[in-house]
User: What shape does this take?
Amino acid sequence: MPSLNLLKKLHKPDARIKMERTHYGIKFFMPENLTEDELLKLLVRIPATAYKLPDNQGIVLDFLSRPCSRRLILHMINSIVWEKNIKVLAWLSKNQDSMKLFLSAGLNVEEPQKNSIPKQNDEQQISKIEPQKKISALKVVYNSMRSGQRIESEGDVLVWGHLNPGAEIVAGGSVIIAGKLLGIVHAGGFGREDVFVWAGCFETPQVRISNKLCYADPKSTACWRKSVLITLDDGTPVIRENKFLLNLSNEKK
Assistant: This one.
């Protein structure tokens, strides 16, 4: 049950979550005068059916000017996005610190444009008539990427080196890091889920595939500092140790 203070605040129009129907689904406007705990309580109370949309639609979260902490973002992803199986298309904010947190977590911060959300019939027609136009060329980087470097590609990305802390890759397809994965990777950055992330040495706290975030703790992740393959299984990120190369190495001995 919500507290009395929260109930009093909800009588004010500017203390309620506002929803707006859009071409891509629903846009949620977060009230700025509620505490983070109060905001989370409101979001949890919204039934899961309210988030159910057609496959080609989703929601956008607009935090307006309110500052967002890491705690708020993590709680929203865990208790709202994953728990209610929500397809979040973008995280918006006028607060620069909040935007930096969204970007560092690999979250999309651009509201979908009208021509960027294809209709289902259009997708089916494109796949039948012109499938070659949906496939983008592989982008290859022949060295390591340092902090501050960023690559965005509609197709797959292959890095013949390390992805160092502070470097970022956003790919519409899959991402392969031949060396150490220390930076930020977002595979399936435009909604695809049939993608993967492969790393020669896994040493990053989080990887994003489509609209799913995969968190890793060095102390509890068995695959830490090992060659890994990360995929989505039934919408859930799964990290597997890449034992194929290890088996090949053992066979040569």
